[in-house]
Design goal:
Immunoglobulin-like; single chain; four-stranded antiparallel β-sheet
Length: 100
């Protein structure tokens, strides 16, 4: 997964590109004691195809997919962990902004 961590004059920004996940798949946690941002995402899907016949052979298909993501980002001391804004963009980019 692609990510950017940016320090601007008045902001600390973490951008994570999660194109295969939906907003509801993503969890964000800020560990205030350790000053760590944790981003995790989990999803699963199932695909099933009923039995088909090819001559004397019956074909049955079932697939279950699980996908997960986890990242820890340290939050600098000069950044407020109280003022945080998160945005999930249509292209799958998650932006988390902390004010300084």
């Amino acid at each position: 997964m692609e990510s950017d961590v940016l320090m601007e004059k008045n902001k600390f920004i973490v951008e994570e590109y999660l194109p295969d996940f939906k907003k509801e798949d993503i969890k964000i946690n800020i560990n205030k004691e350790e000053r760590i941002l944790e981003i995790s995402a989990n999803k699963s899907s199932e695909e099933e195809e009923k039995a088909k016949s090819k001559g004397d052979v019956k074909i049955y298909y079932f697939e279950k997919k699980e996908d997960s993501f986890y990242k820890k980002v340290p939050i600098p001391e000069n950044v407020s962990i109280e003022e945080v804004q998160t945005t999930f963009h249509k292209d799958g980019t998650l932006t988390i902004e902390f004010k300084k």
